[in-house]
């Protein structure tokens, strides 16, 4: 038994030595390159993208196929080409097609879109911790886009794990200054909200508690309201402290049916308004709604605290 044990130990030692020798000759496969690194180009659009990347370290894409790689040949001798494709719907937990988009092929308007990201969006993000992994400029963006959904809606921005989609690229050049400012704030709000929800949720507690427990004893978030519900349907959701309704469910004034937004959408709405930095205009529109004004002030405080922590 002792002899057998010594034999096993000796064999294990030899195998370990051979294994270590193999490790010395290991080298990276280069099969997983960094697809998010941009290189300079003589092409005006791609050179502009490179300068933005040099400044912020974040790529702005206009094509969802962001790279390819030859990975040898298959058993028939045909080349194996791998394509890296941005997927705004990528998630560890789900493969549902929530966001659907149409690309733009108008390079002149795409240049305007890249300049918009550079001049209007990045300056509103006070820290690199708020940056997405990349931006993808698209012409049209539809959310809640699965084939079984009856309530799809178009938006200007969507934050995914792989990229943040920015829509309306072919319309930016024709927008007014006010429209450009609001769109930039809506895009930036997606980034702030993601950071707040994932890393600084405690800053939102007081804000969220207004609709969780203060307006009524019922948590109002993502709640279907009808004429017979508790609390009941109201024509103006601002009475309950909301700036918008859930676009992914039925909304009918005639049948008095609406669903309130969830917490994340509510945060996006208010962060957008805070980023607009126009207290007078906000009070003019919402000054008669007690809970809206209270939540606005609470979100201003939350954003001030977040920006201070990020500096």
Keywords:
11 strands; globular
Q: In a few lines, what is going on in this structure?
A:
The chain is an alpha+beta fold. It contains eight helices and eleven strands. It is globular.
Strand content: 5-15%
> Could you name the ranges where pLDDT drops below 50 across 5 or more consecutive residues?
4-9, 14-30
The largest β sheet comes out as: 4 strands, mixed
Please report the total strand number as a whole number: 11
* Helix/strand class: alpha+beta
Name the assembly state: single chain
Structural overview:
41% of the residues lie in helices and 14% in strands. With 311 residues, the chain is of the alpha+beta class. The protein folds into two domains: 44-174, no CATH class; 201-310, no CATH class. Helix 2 (44-56) runs parallel beside helix 3.
Layout of secondary structure:
Elements: H1 2-24, H2 44-56, E1 60-61, E2 65-73, E3 79-85, E4 99-102, H3 107-121, E5 135-137, E6 140-143, E7 153-154, E8 157-159, E9 164-166, H4 177-199, H5 205-214, E10 224-226, E11 257-259, H6 263-276, H7 279-286, H8 290-310
Parallel strand pairs: 1-5, 5-9
Antiparallel strand pairs: 2-3, 4-6, 6-7, 8-9, 10-11
